[in-house]
């Protein structure tokens, strides 16, 4: 079955060095194993991008940009429309590959491909809406306006947990904006990246725009090279806060632009006015879904003290009913963590939690089976425990209590990260307080839905250590273009702004 899926995706050289490159005959980089985290076995080996390959790819991207930027934006949109169609045709196969390589359940694997398709659709419409403003001039017979131009080849560095959707957030928008894309996926998920590149290769060949989408398979060293590369005016980087700090410093050192989508430490507040059935379902998906490996995963549950014990009991019962297993099997809700290191980090975090005064209410163990499976875990904790302030990329949910809403919001905002947040309440006053300027300090603030599972129509991203970037919908496209303010004088006079006079005396 797996071999057929790979063949349909154009990946024929399984286990003998699937090429992670396009337009390069002799890739020279190291090899990266694509491992199925549910079994621990190697799915395929992908040849990485060596230094010489990287130089060819970025030089080629610069040449392609010189042409691609001259295509009318709606024509660029037509290429992305075709990419969306190609992704639709391959949705099942690519979704399964995401599941096999990341361990997320099949519905989420396919959902990730749907997100790519949605981004393509969004970008097609956007290709006719890259609007600038017209601005009233203070000078007579003058006209001012803004226009947006393509920026250049854009470097896109992605994390393992959304191996293809985050690429699409960036690539679909950047392409219609007239940019060329150089993508470095996570070394944990090289195979889905190659599969996407193969789909792109076919679409590019059909449209004579080869070199628009480029892939560099590699580890940190390629990412560092991209961050330092002046030929890439924008680096979009998704990953941990530590990675973001390093990338941001390097890019700033050359006065480039960074678009950062970093770690979260997301919270839900449940008030006495909440619909608890709704809250329970939302908490389960947000905390346990994707094995706690989403940037928007719920990590801190802030419950009113009057509800804490009864809600914890309901949560324990719900956790006990979650089916753990192979993520491609129907009914399974919890697959494996990405690798052995992630399991070790989860167990270490739980040790810390115990030492800092936390109590494990359920879960907390590694499963005795091949692969990297763990139990989803509930920990009774306090907001001031250092471990609660960290993002551990695993299904650990810390239960915290509060007395009044101001305290709940203060706890919610007390961490360094600022990505996603939510409140469950049927009180309009509580909801509006949470959404007001003295409420949540996050980039995403929800009422009566969980922290996970954003739609592409909104701008996605977070504040503080989450990096401040915004991607996907709304006006996130502006990050991929340069703004130009233009003034045209249609008159016969040359008035200066602010009434300044600068006239040569007549003799
Ligand atoms: P990671 O930071 O280990 O790696 C992310 C990517 O950055 C990889 O491609 C990696 O090779 C590269 N990288 C690492 N160090 C680098 C450096 N110094 N210079 C250049 N590139 C470098 O993250 P991960 O384990 O793959 O993913 C999990 C993290 O990503 C979590 O913190 C999660 O919250 C975050 N994430 C954030 C978002 C978001 O939109 N905010 C989305 C997905 C994941």
Q: What would your notes on this structure say?
A:
With 507 residues, the chain is α/β, with parallel strands linked by helices. It folds into 2 domains: 279 residues, Aldehyde Dehydrogenase, Chain A, domain 1 (3-Layer(aba) Sandwich); 190 residues, Aldehyde Dehydrogenase, Chain A, domain 2, CATH 3.40.309. The chain contains 14 helices and 22 strands. It has a 7-stranded mixed β-sheet with strand order 13-14-15-12-11-17-18, sandwiched between helices. A 5-stranded parallel β-sheet has the order 8-7-6-9-10, with helices on both faces. Strands 1-3-2 form a 3-stranded mixed β-sheet, covered by helices on one side. Helix 10 links the parallel strand 11 and strand 12. Helix 4 packs antiparallel against helix 7 and helix 5 packs parallel to helix 6. About 3% of the residues have low confidence. Nicotinamide-adenine-dinucleotide (NAD) binds next to helix 8 and helix 9.
């Amino acid at each position: 079955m797996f071999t057929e899926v790979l063949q349909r995706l154009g990946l024929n050289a399984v286990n003998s060095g699937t090429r992670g490159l396009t337009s390069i005959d002799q890739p020279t980089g190291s090899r990266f194993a694509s491992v199925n985290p549910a079994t621990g076995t190697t799915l395929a080996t992908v040849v990485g991008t060596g230094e010489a390959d990287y130089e060819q790819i970025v030089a080629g991207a610069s040449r392609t940009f010189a042409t691609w930027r001259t295509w009318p934006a709606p024509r660029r949109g037509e290429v992305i429309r075709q990419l969306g169609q190609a992704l639709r045709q391959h949705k099942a196969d690519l979704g399964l590959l995401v599941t096999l390589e990341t361990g997320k359940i099949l519905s989420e694997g396919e959902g990730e491909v749907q997100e790519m398709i949605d981004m393509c659709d969004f970008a097609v419409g956007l290709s006719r809406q890259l609007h600038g403003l017209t601005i009233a001039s203070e000078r007579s017979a003058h006209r001012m306006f803004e226009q947006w131009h393509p920026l250049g080849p854009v470097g896109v560095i992605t994390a393992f947990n959304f191996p293809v959707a985050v690429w699409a957030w960036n690539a679909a928008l950047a392409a219609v904006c007239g940019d060329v894309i150089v993508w470095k996926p996570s070394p944990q998920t090289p195979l889905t990246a190659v599969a996407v590149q193969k789909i792109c290769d076919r679409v590019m060949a059909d449209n004579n725009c080869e070199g628009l989408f480029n892939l560099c398979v590699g580890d940190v060293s390629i990412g560092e090279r991209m961050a330092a590369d002046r030929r890439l005016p924008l680096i979009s980087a998704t990953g941990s806060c530590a990675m973001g700090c390093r990338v941001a410093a390097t890019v700033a050192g050359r006065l480039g632009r960074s678009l950062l989508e970093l770690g979260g430490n997301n919270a839900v507040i449940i008030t006495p006015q909440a619909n608890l059935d709704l809250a329970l379902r939302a908490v389960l998906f947000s905390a346990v879904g994707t094995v706690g490996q989403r940037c928007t995963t719920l990590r801190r549950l802030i419950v009113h003290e009057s509800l804490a014990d009864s809600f914890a009991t309901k949560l324990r019962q719900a956790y006990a009913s979650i089916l753990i297993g192979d993520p491609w099997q129907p009914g399974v809700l919890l697959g494996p963590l990405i690798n052995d290191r992630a399991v070790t980090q989860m167990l270490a975090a739980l040790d810390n939690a115990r030492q800092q005064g936390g109590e494990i209410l359920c879960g907390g163990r590694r499963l005795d089976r091949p692969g990297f499976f763990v139990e989803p875990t509930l920990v009774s904790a306090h907001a001031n425990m250092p471990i609660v302030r960290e993002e551990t990329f695993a299904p650990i949910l810390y239960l915290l209590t509060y007395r009044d809403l101001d305290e709940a919001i203060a706890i919610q905002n007390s961490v360094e990260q600022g990505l996603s947040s939510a409140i469950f309440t049927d009180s309009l006053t509580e909801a509006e307080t949470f959404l007001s300027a003295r409420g949540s300090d996050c980039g995403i603030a929800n009422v009566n839905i969980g922290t996970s599972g954003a739609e592409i129509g909104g701008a996605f991203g977070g504040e503080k250590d989450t990096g401040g970037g915004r991607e996907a919908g709304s006006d996130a496209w502006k990050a991929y273009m340069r703004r130009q303010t233009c003034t045209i004088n249609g008159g016969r006079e040359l008035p200066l702004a602010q009434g300044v006079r600068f006239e040569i005396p007549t003799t």
